[in-house]
Amino acid sequence: MVRLAQEDGAVEIHVTGIVQGVGFRPHVYKSAISLGLKGWVINTTAGVTIRLEGPAQKITKFMEDLRKSPPPLSQIETFAVRDVGLEGFSAFFIHESQNAADTDISIPPDVGTCPDCLREYRDPTDRRSGYPFINCVNCGPRFSITRAAPYDRKNTSMHVFEMCDDCIAEYIDPMDRRFHAEPNACPVCGPKLTLTLPDGSPLEGDLRGLLKEGRVLAIKGIGGYHLACDALNTGAVRLLRERKRRHGKPFALMCRDLETVRGHCELSPEEEKLLASPARPILLLKRKPASPLCEETAPGLDTLGMMLPYTPLHYGLFDEDLSILVMTSANISGDPLIISEEDAYTHLGELADAFVIHNREIVNRADDSVAMIFRDKPYLLRRARGFVPHGVKLPFSLSAVFAAGGDLKSVFAYAGKDKAILSQYFGDLDNLRNLDAYQDGVRFFRDFLKIRPERVVCDLHPDYASAGFTERYAEELGVPLVKVQHHKAHFASAMADNGLNEKVLGVICDGTGFGEDSSIWGFELFYGDYSDIKRVGSLTPFPQPRGDSVVKNPLHMAAVLLCALWEDKDKVLDALPGSVGLLPYTKAQASSNTLSIASSSCGRLFDAAAALCGFTGKVTYEGEAAMRMESLAHQVADADPYGYDILEDDILRLSWGFIGEMAEDRLSGTKPPVLAARFHQTVSASICDLVERLAAGYETDKVVFSGGTFQNRFVISTLAEKLLDMGIKAYFHHQVPTNDGGLALGQVVIAASRAEK
Ligand code: ZN
Ligand code: ZN
Ligand code: FE
Questions:
Q1: pLDDT tens for residues 694-738?
Q2: Residues 206, 208, 213, 217: what is their CA dihedral angle, to the nearest 10 degrees?
Q3: What is the pLDDT of residues 586-596, one digit of tens each?
Q4: Distance, CA 422 to ligand 3 centroid (Å)?
């Protein structure tokens, strides 16, 4: 046997991506030690640098292993290797960070319980067996417990818990999974769980027992409180709905495991992966007809919002008899998610029968994120816990910007260099408590990013609270304020989300936005890039009654549209029998510029169509009418679109007259699911037609899609299919929401591009 000579080599490896605050250095350390390699590893401003010395084969093996199985939470973007000279290191070292004042994001998002921690939780012999706050370097609370940068225990709400000797030993051992795991804790030294009555007095008994009795529990989680009950107990679900006075909005559900999810919903491999991912979002899934959940869980919808447990505490809520729980955010009518015990007892006292609290303070509120899978990729609808404050990479570098976002589903952003950091979701800012939380958030992010914006940007809408706030912020900073039209921000957001930096077409279908001509926009086509966006198409304006009440009343919108189309009042009444009381007003509103405002809102068009499909009640949450109509449309496999006209005016104008044809269709006795499917097909077909004409005219095959309407699965899936056949490259959102939660990203890139000019 010939023994091959093994020569010692030396290399330096530079890795970038998400490689800090994710246990990368200990991972490298362990791997190097196990292979007998020497050298060091260090965090730098631009990533992680590794120096290795030892047998060439071992070095190769090290690199293979690191690329193949990096630490679970890391994401390697680049991996550069160069040969260097031998220095003769005596061992392998973890060096302290080269630049402590690193301005890059040092706070990771909250991470769902990892398999190792779950194993310990379930192991009766482990010292943390059954401990609800188990975590390690691969999982646990992060953003939600952090007060300031850098992400160190002393800057988190864990600082009040002094680690015991066993925990310290883990914390300082580079070979241990809890090496520098900042929230490290155990039953001896860490946070404790308490079960109480609504008056705060201790309660003997067990959580699961209460749930099985049909009780409602207020449970303190990672980013806020939930209200929970057994989802299979119809009485409990109804009770919770009554107490919460939440009539239509679907409840989020938490399942014991993937198998349980599969019992209620269809589940693709991509959906499975996202459900179980470290971010553990709520995923919108197609409900199986066999699911025994009661109608009150998600009234009128064919989807369910499902998530998996993401803290050890959650795992403790399930057993063989408890497989699925309602886990709805604990807040009162549009107020911020509750995070403190004080607020919980004050506001949830009459909603919950018992409280599951603990003494680890929630510093940053973070709602559960909501997503779905579209074209095999995550499609975020609400970006909060598990994603914030991860940055979104920008298609170009810029100087520091603050972007306010919008007033609905509000999210702001700070951006600098080639990254935008989007805040968590703050809900609607017409609620003053939400506005307070939003403003606190702006200050928190400014401090932890140590950023001083050189310009600030907000929506063009004169009445937005976020715009008012931004005007004051600009004054305070003494920097220019930029205003960006709502749908142009949507357009730029979809471009940036897809890393585009060239002239493209865009289709924005949305609820309401303030237009540049002071009318309401919402179904807009654009052509351009970040610095120059031209409106090239739109829905023909229709009369939208002034004021907010029409937004809550789809029947009202439908009656106005039909009155504008038809002279014959009786015919309107036949098509919309419930509108009898409205007609005297709608007739006037349909023909008056003082009572109505010109609008091309896609959301209102969907509302009107939903009323024709039988949704004639008041909407109880944004998008309710459209969501219910969509659920009807999915019942019909094939449907023909209505006829529609596109006028070539100064810009292309899609006529909304097909609403009249839809009403005629209803009058002839066509059933709501068919009406709904035909309406959806009309929207998709007309968008494709508009795109085809514009793509030919502007000689581009790239089209971005943004706006709240594209939360509609029926519309996006039919569109994607048709556009593929047409040879159009369609870009939908995937990192930030297509609704107003993604607006701030678009504002950032537009404001930065205007500065360049
Ligand atoms: Zn873990
Ligand atoms: Zn301990
Ligand atoms: Fe919008």
A1: 999 999 999 999 999 999 999 999 999 999 999 999 999 999 999
A2: 90
A3: 999 999 889 99
A4: 16
The residues, any chain, with a CB within 8 Å of residue 699's CB and separated by 6 or more, are none
Name all domains of the chain by residue range, CATH numbers in brackets: 8-94 (3.30.70.100), 108-190 (3.90.870.30), 193-370 (3.90.870.40), 390-494+739-756 (3.30.420.360), 539-731 (3.30.420.40)
Strand partners, 18: 75
- Output the CA 136–ligand 1 centroid distance in Å: 4
* Contact (CB, 8 A) for 181 and 161: no
Ligand 2 centroid to residue 163 C-alpha, Å: 5
* 117 Cβ neighbours under 8 A, 6+ residues apart: 134, 135, 136, 138, 139, 140, 312
Distance 680 CA to ligand 2 centre (A): 57
Q: Helix 554-565 and helix 602-612: axis angle, to 10°?
A: 90
Q: List the shell of residues around ion ligand 2, using CB closer than 5 Å.
A: 164, 167, 186, 188-189
* Burial zone of 282 (CB within 10 Å; 0-12 exposed, 13-18 middle, 19+ buried): buried
CA of 135 to the centre of ligand 2 (A): 12
Length of the chain, please? 757
Neighbouring C-beta atoms of residue 460, cutoff 10 Å:
19
Q: What does DSSP assign to residue 100?
A: T
Residue 210 Cα, ligand 2 centroid: separation in angstroms?
Answer: 30
CA of 93 to the centre of ligand 2 (A): 26
Average pLDDT over residues 512-534: 97
Looking from the CA of 53 toward its CB, the CA atoms found within 13 Å total 13
Closest CA to 748 of 214, 392, 407: 392
Both tokens of residue 734?
A: 């995937």
SS3 content of the chain, % helix, strand, coil (to 5): 35, 25, 40
Q: Looking at the CA of 142, which ligand is closest?
A: 1
**Of 534, 725, 561, residue with least CA distance to 659:** 561
Ligand 2 center to 169 CA (angstroms): 9
Q: Is 520 helix (H, G, I), strand (E, B) or coil?
A: strand
List the 38-44 sheet strands across, edge first.
75-83, 8-18, 47-55, 38-44, 92-94
Q: How far apart are CA 200 and CA 719, in angstroms?
A: 53
The answer to whether 368 touches 281, Cβ cutoff 8 Å, is yes
Residue at 114: amino acid letter: C
Alpha-carbon distance of 470 to 463, in angstroms, equals 12
Distance 511 CA to ligand 3 centre (A): 6
Q: What percent of the chain has pLDDT over 90?
A: 88
Taking phi over 0 as left and psi of -120 to 50 as alpha, with beta for the rest, 456 belongs to beta
- Flag whether pLDDT at 6 surpasses 70: no
Ligand nearest the Cα of residue 140 is 1
Radius of gyration in angstroms for the set of CA atoms belonging to the chain, rounded to a whole number: 28
Ligand with the closest atom to the CA of 166: 2
The whole-angstrom separation of Cα 551 and Cα 545 is: 9
> What is the rounded distance in angstroms from the CA atom of residue 490 to the CA atom of residue 482?
16
Q: Of the ligands numbered here, which is closest to the C-alpha atom of 484? A: 3
Mark 375-410 as b/e (b = at least 16 C-beta within 10 Å).
eeebbbbbbbbbbbbbbbebbeebebbbbbbbbbbb
Q: Which helix (H) or strand (E) holds 80?
A: strand 75-83
From residue 600, give the alpha-carbon distance in Å to each of 222, 656, 712.
41, 9, 18
At 135 the three-state DSSP class reads coil
Q: Is 701 exposed, middle or buried (0-12, 13-18, 19+ CB in 10 A)?
A: middle
Could you tell me the pTM of the whole model? Answer: 0.94
346: burial class by Cβ within 10 Å (0-12, 13-18, 19+)? exposed
